[in-house]
Amino acid sequence: MAFPEPKPRPPELPQKRLKTLDCGQGAVRAVRFNVDGNYCLTCGSDKTLKLWNPLRGTLLRTYSGHGYEVLDAAGSFDNSSLCSGGGDKAVVLWDVASGQVVRKFRGHAGKVNTVQFNEEATVILSGSIDSSIRCWDCRSRRPEPVQTLDEARDGVSSVKVSDHEVLAGSVDGRMRRYDLRMGQLFSDYVGSPITCTCFSRDGQCTLVSSLDSTLRLLDKDTGELLGEYKGHKNQEYKLDCCLSERDTHVVSCSEDGKVFFWDLVEGVLALALPVGCGVVQSLAYHPTEPCLLTAMGGSIQCWREEAYEAEDGAG
After folding, report:
1. Which family is annotated (predicted)?
2. I need a surface site. Which of 31, 57, 132, 164 has the fewest CB within 10 A?
3. For the segment 266-298, what is each residue's pLDDT rounded down to a tens digit?
């Protein structure tokens, strides 16, 4: 007689506040985990980018070189490089260890809202208020981008990259997916200005948030609407959304001081997590664990599941 397989543990939501870090860099415009979730980046309105160990609450390095506020950042797959973009229209490639600027790419005609590395960290993709996505070769000395994607009719608010796709959200109300293998462009019309887009962890779906205070889950290949998620407030700010580490929940910032979690399949609200008084400007979800970072005002908050016990020195 065979024993039944043990049931997988139900997903736990990060609702226990472990840490609040005052970042000391003006308003935190974005918070981002690195590739393995051990470190995070914060983008400041004071023109700096900072690298932290969020569980320990320790500042590891400050990166200075932008001429205006930093709006987004990302880490490379091997943790050796960072890229960032901001209000100075520049895209900056940094060496993590030395804190030095390796390259500064100029060409955008307006502020850079979003930056991403490709998988090999050989190319930086940047999306700007100037309605373009530009692709910069990290290894070349050429000052101009190797490719410009200019299909958007208004500012580009969000860019995400998979091994062969670029997913972009625009204020023109369209989410565009560039399939680089097939050389094809797919477009889904949402109708309201898009604030954030992302792939599901399994790569089958895309999640899009827009200024009608609605998140939509679409089948990546067909564009079919799989779910709508409401209850949060997003009418004027560019706010982050994502999926939890096991694709079980849809997660969004809100302008009313909370982070909202919905059950992905059922579409029902599972948790409205109170962060504070103000707009939850940004969030980041750990790649493999129920750990959430939120940004509000000048600080970030680190959240874990209720059962989590901090290791000595990390709490």
Report:
1. Belongs to the WD repeat MORG1 family.
2. 164
3. 999 999 999 999 999 999 999 999 999 999 999
Q: Report CA-CA distances (Å) from 156 to 10, 150, 170, 194, 211.
A: 37, 10, 4, 9, 14
Q: Can you say whether residue 146 is alpha, beta or left, with left for phi > 0 and alpha for psi between -120 and 50 degrees?
A: alpha
Rounded to 5 degrees, what are φ and ψ at 19?
-150, 145
pLDDT of 26-51, one tens digit each? 999 999 999 999 999 999 999 999 99
Residues near 80 by beta carbon (within 8 Å), at least 6 away in sequence: 95, 96, 97, 121
Q: Could you tell me which of 243, 247, 242, 255 has the C-alpha nearest to residue 211?
A: 255
Global pTM exceeds 0.85? yes
Whether the CB-CB separation of 242 and 207 falls below 8 Å is answered with: yes
User: Does 310 fall in a domain?
Assistant: no
Query: Residues 90, 65: contact at Cβ < 8 Å?
Result: no
CATH number at residue 157: 2.130.10.10
CA distance 63 to 45: 13
Both tokens of 313, joined, read 């020195």
Does the residue 189 lie in any domain?
A: yes
Structure tokens at 212: 């009608």
Q: Round to whole Å and give the CA distance between 146 and 149.
A: 10
- Domain coverage including residue 243: 16-255+270-304
Distances in Å between the Cα of 84 and the Cα atoms of 62, 116, 125, 152, 213 are 13, 8, 10, 21, 27
Residue 9: its pLDDT value, please? 67
Q: Is residue 261 part of a domain?
A: no
